[in-house]
Each structure stands twice: as C-alpha cells, then as structure tokens.
Design a protein that fits this description.
The protein is an alpha/beta fold. The protein is built from ten helices and 16 strands. About 40% of the residues lie in helices and about 20% in strands. The strands form four sheets. Strands 6-5-4-7-10-15-16 form a seven-stranded mixed sheet. Strands 11-8-9-14 form a four-stranded mixed sheet, covered by helices on one side. A three-stranded antiparallel sheet has the order 1-2-3. Bound molecules: 5-S-methyl-1-O-phosphono-5-thio-D-ribulose (MRU). Keywords: Amino-acid biosynthesis, Isomerase, Methionine biosynthesis. Pathway: Amino-acid biosynthesis; L-methionine biosynthesis via salvage pathway; L-methionine from S-methyl-5-thio-alpha-D-ribose 1-phosphate: step 1/6.
C-alpha cells in the first residue's frame, strides 16, 4: 500500500517524506521535506492532503519544528511560531491543528517524545480507518441487502488521504474484498481532480471496477438509480453532525435524500470537532482564482473574470444517513442532538 507520509529517521538529516500528490498519477515523486516552510508549502499546494493525512502531517510538523529549531538555534518562541504556522496552514480540516496541538503537548519533554506522539497519531489513524471500514460495510449491507452494491464517491479518501488504508475509500475496499461491490462512480472533483487523478489511480491499483464522471453528473447518476448509496469522507464533523467535505459533496447528499438511498460519511474520530456546535461555524478555505479559471495551466476564462473557489461545502446533518467512525455508526438524521457531545 502506498504511503503518503512518513518520517525518515536519519540523525541530523531526519525529515518528512511525502508522496507529491500534485504529480499523480503521471509520476510517483517523493518530496524530502526538512524545513517547516517547505512542509507548509506542500500542505498549501496539496502535495499532501486529505484530513487524516493532514493530522499526521501536523504531528510530524511539530517534530520537524523541533528538529529544524535545534539545527538553527531557534528560541522557544520561534519554535512555537513555527508550530502555529503548521497548525494553521489550511483552515477547514480539523485534523491538521488537532495533530499539531496533540504533538505540541509534549514539546517540553523533547524531540523524541514529540516524534513518538506523531508516530502514534499515524498508527491510530490506520487502525481507525480499518475498523470504520468494516463497520461501514456491515451497516451498508444490513441497510441495502446482501447483494453487489453500486456506489458514488467524491474527492479522494484512500491511503493517499490518510496515513494508510482510507476512510470512505476503505469502506469501498472492504466491500470489494467481501465480493459485494459491483461499481464505483468516481466524481472527478473539480478543480484539482482528486477523483480523476487520485481515487481512480487507487481503485485501479486495487482492481476495483469504476467509472470517472464529471461532478455535474453525480446528482443525475443518483436520481437515475445507477447507484445504491453515496459515501464520502470528511474534513470536519461538528457536534451536531454537520459535515464539511470537498465542495460538491452536498449535491450528492441532496440527491440521495430525494432518491431515498443512504448518504454515508466516513471518518476517523479525530475528524469530529466536538467544540464546534454546527457547520455554520466551520471556516471554509477559499483557494485561488487560477484553479478555476485556468485549465491545465492555460487560462480558460476571459481576462478580468474573477472566480469563487470554496474548497469545501457543509452537508447538514439531517441529509446524512450515517456517520461512521471507529467508535461506531451514528444514524445522523435520527440521533439526538448533539450527536457528539463535548467531552467533559
Ligand atoms: C479521508 S480524506 C477526507 C477529506 O479530507 C477529503 O474528502 C477531502 O475533502 C480532501 O480535500 P483536499 O482539498 O484534497 O485536502
């Protein structure tokens, strides 16, 4: 299985190795990241992306800040500023700041302890993804019946987007291994094509039958009865179950509600933000005009035209049939509010 993010132990040369996802599927190129600035650049360019992978990046980012700080003689304040910069590199996926703040707790105990915590974040993520994939597959088969299923998914939620295995993708993979998955419709995922470039690459490598469709086809695919369910990942799930994910996700939810088929959100519990009450309070990242107005680096829109480029949307909890985490399946539309009460 592909590893999107790894810590390379090499003494004074220790660093983070990232698979550069901007170059997939054409080239499997690894970035050797040894400074906080280059990690932030990789996060903002989406060389590393996907909420759980960002969580692990946050953890390793703190280790990197200590490592670079020791080399360059940073003060404690400078180390702290660099940790904050990693935590804030992208705003919507809660995992990034969560991972950074979790590892930061151990700064006073030194680099080795921070690195140990960052490794733990990654290991827990893989375990969570494997567990939630089984739970999600069980739930879907119980709901829909024990027959080959057809699915639609949006963006990329596989090993590339996580430390390993995947979330929504993990459920699809699990159904495939059980011989219960007939076809996956993969939304291309404008504007950066995570579906076309990344999800279809992973599905192809895993031998899972799929078709890539333009994002605008998804609602009609659902209404025409071509799929039995939709499954997506999440960047942030608030206390009431509202879910931020890649822009375009809410269209799938609306179509599934109209058609009466399950719309499932899958994420490790690290994506649940108990401190945020509803989706209205989620900061939605807005990205550059060029991503929308250019096609393969060539301007497609007339000069002077501006874009609106939110990277995420929020699906209200009442449109979500189930939220699957490693802790279990919550049927979001019927469960009491808040779904995920703040830990006391
Ligand atoms: C398991 S990944 C879940 C989400 O992070 C994923 O669906 C998504 O929206 C990723 O957006 P991206 O902008 O590629 O980081």
């Amino acid at each position: 299985m592909v590893r999107a993010i790894e810590w390379i132990d090499a003494g004074t040369e220790s660093h983070i190795r990232l698979l550069d996802q901007t170059l997939l599927p054409g080239s499997e190129t690894y970035l050797e990241v040894s400074t906080v600035d280059s990690l932030i650049d990789a996060i903002q360019r989406l060389a590393v992306r996907g909420a759980p992978a960002l969580g692990t990046s946050g953890g390793y980012g703190v280790a990197l800040a200590l490592h670079e700080g020791a080399r360059k003689g940073w003060t404690a304040d400078e180390v702290k500023q660099n940790i904050d910069a990693v935590a804030n590199a992208r705003p919507t996926a809660v995992n990034l700041a969560w991972g950074a703040r979790r590892a930061e707790t151990f700064v006073a105990e030194g680099f080795e302890r921070v690195l140990e915590e960052a490794h733990a974040i990654g290991l827990e993520d893989e375990r969570a993804n494997r567990e939630l994939s089984k739970l999600g597959a069980d739930w879907l088969l119980a709901q829909i019946g024990d027959r080959p299923l057809r699915a639609v998914t949006h963006c990329n939620t596989g090993a590339l987007a996580t430390t390993a295995w995947g979330t929504a993708y993990g459920i699809l993979h699990e159904l495939h291994l059980r011989g219960r998955l007939e076809m996956v419709y993969v939304d291309e995922t404008r504007p950066l094509l995570q579906g076309t470039r990344l999800t279809s690459w992973e599905l192809k490598n895993d031998g899972i039958p799929h078709l890539v469709e333009v994002d605008g086809a998804a609602a009609s695919t659902i209404l025409r009865g071509l799929v039995d369910f939709a499954v997506i990942g999440a960047d942030r799930i608030t206390a009431n179950g509202d879910t931020a994910n890649k822009v375009g996700s809410v269209a799938l939810a609306l179509a599934c509600a109209r058609k009466g088929i399950p719309f499932v959100v899958a994420a490790p519990y690290s994506t649940v933000d108990e401190a945020t009450t509803t989706g209205d309070d989620i900061e939605i990242e807005e990205r550059s005009d060029a991503e929308v107005l250019e096609f393969a680096g060539v301007r497609a829109a007339a000069e002077g035209v501006r874009a609106f480029n939110p990277a995420f949307d929020v699906t209200p909890h009442d449109l979500i049939s189930a939220i699957v985490t490693e802790r279990g399946v919550v049927e979001a539309s019927t469960a009491p509010q808040p779904l995920f009460p703040q830990a006391s």
